[in-house]
Amino acid sequence: MTWILLHLERLAAFETQKGIHVMLHQNSVFHSLTKYVPWARFEQLVEKYGADKLSRKLKTKQHFLAVLYGQFSGATGLREIVGGMESHQSRLYHVGGSVVKRSTMSDANAARPCQLFGDLFAQMLLQAHRGLRRATGEAVRLIDSTSVRLSSLSKDWAEFSTGVCGAKVHVVYDPQADLPVYFALTRANVNDITAAKAMPIEAGATYVFDLGYYDYGWWAQLDAADCRLVTRLKKNTPITVVSENRVPKDSHILSDRIGYLPARLANSRKNPMQIAVRELRVRIETGKVLRIVTNDLDAPAEEIADLYKQRWQIELFFRWIKQTLRIKRFLGISENAVRIQIAVALIAFLILRLAQAAQKIVHSPLAFARLVRTNLMHRRPLAELLSPEQPPPTNRNQLKLELCFK
Q: pLDDT digit string (tens) for 331-389?
């Protein structure tokens, strides 16, 4: 009997060349991804907001992991999240998660402070930018928003037209790190410039934005913070030209002029943007001519035109998260539930970017996200998602046990 017990103990381990017994264990892909979450800071935020006291049946960590699982797996509703986690119950232990009930999760989405998840996103941004931002001279910030449709059940807070409900996600984006640096959620009928005025201004940065942010007062605030701004002028906005720079022949830049915006606005108000500005007329690929304006009077015209062209990167970002993550269909109808889901979606985006940067095999962010979804609960290293699965190593001592019973 002693001989049998000794061999049973050896079944759960294998012996290395140095004679050390090592357990055969490989984390699931989901477990590996959650290691990018700063859990110590997470617990501090739980304590700060008293988040565990508001929903005792479902702890904040389990709630967060369930919503995060839904983002990575592509689940479209609470039932799909609950069913998926139940089917992988045995692999949730090492992650710190557990099977959740649909009603309990719904209650947590409505009651748990959404600010906790927004603060966690801000904390993870610092980590992500240290690892991903390329070494460049100045910070470039792209500003834009995207709309999301909501169910008519959200009409008490999100209705902006009869029978139509929606919200806007306002984002400040760093194209050099390919990451958002700020986000806010408003009703769909809130103007972009209204949300922009509530955004923090990063002194010395370059801000690139479109006509939705046409406000001379806000432009003057950016200029006062030593920021460079690059945007478009409306067709009917006059400019008093004081000098004109030469442009190369056969260039897509048609003119490069320095002048002043109108001194007075409607109702004889003084224009707060009294400094000299620079207007570039640029022909784009479609043949359309754009009037680009900036407060940078010295940079090469090509540089200014290229900065405005970078604005399309934030459009690609919005397209990516809508195709890959879950911000089209929501797990709850309350404003709090929508805010939680959007914050966790952006956290999932950060985790995927960090995980992709840590491996050298899959270069496409979209392809990496799809591989993660396919292998989410499989026990595989993140760096080997494209490699064929290897059979588990055999334990030669198991043969001895089988012979013993014969």
A: 899 999 999 999 999 999 999 999 998 888 888 888 999 999 999 999 989 988 887 76
- Taken in order 160, 161, 163, 168, the sign of the CA dihedral is negative
State mean pLDDT over 5-31.
55
- Write the CB contacts of 352 (distance below 8 Å, at least 6 apart in sequence): 33, 365, 368, 369, 372
- Angle at which helices 60-73 and 102-111 cross, to 10°: 110
Q: What is the pTM of this model?
A: 0.83
What whole-number distance in Å separates Cα of residue 214 and Cα of residue 197?
12
Contact 204, 139 (CB under 8 A): yes
Enclosing H/E stretch for 373:
helix 365-374
Q: Residue 68: exposed, middle, or buried by beta-carbon count in 10 A (0-12, 13-18, 19+)?
A: buried
Read off the pLDDT of residues 28-75 as tens digits, 9 standing for 90 and up. Answer: 999 999 999 999 999 999 999 999 987 678 999 999 999 999 999 999
Parallel/antiparallel/unpaired status of strands 140-150 and 206-208: parallel
> Mapping DSSP to helix (H, G, I), strand (E, B) and coil, where does residue 272 land?
coil
Are 93 and 323 in contact, with CB atoms under 8 Å apart?
no
What are the angstrom distances between the C-alpha of 367 and each of 75, 182, 292, 326, 363? Answer: 18, 25, 35, 17, 8
Residues 6+ apart with CB under 8 A from 322: 146, 328
Cβ distance 331 to 78 under 8 Å? yes
Closest CA to 377 of 98, 89, 105: 89
Task: Copy the structure tokens of residue 177.
Answer: 């790190």
The residues facing 71 across adjacent strands are none
